Amino acid sequence: MPNRNYVRGRQAEYKARRQLEQEKWSTHRSAGSHGVDLVCIRGTPLELLHDLLYVSVKSGKRRPGKRDLQELRRALPRSVPREIWYYAPRQPVEIIPV
To answer: What is the pTM of this model?
Structure first.
């Protein structure tokens, strides 16, 4: 039987993925990752410039703290847009720019 926390986190990632895909983003889920969970690209393959976004999805009672922000900052260069999407129980998603 899978770990309950893993299952909750995975469900939050799929929820974020569906929301991004509705907004015309193409997404890739990085299963088992630490740091970036979703890589999102918007634009056609023939365009040279794409919109790029890295998303780390968090869920649960504990709001993401300094450690979560620092982990994501270290994982990617400053020029890359990145966000933390936090799903609190029975609350709308909170998007935290990093």
So the answer is: 0.83
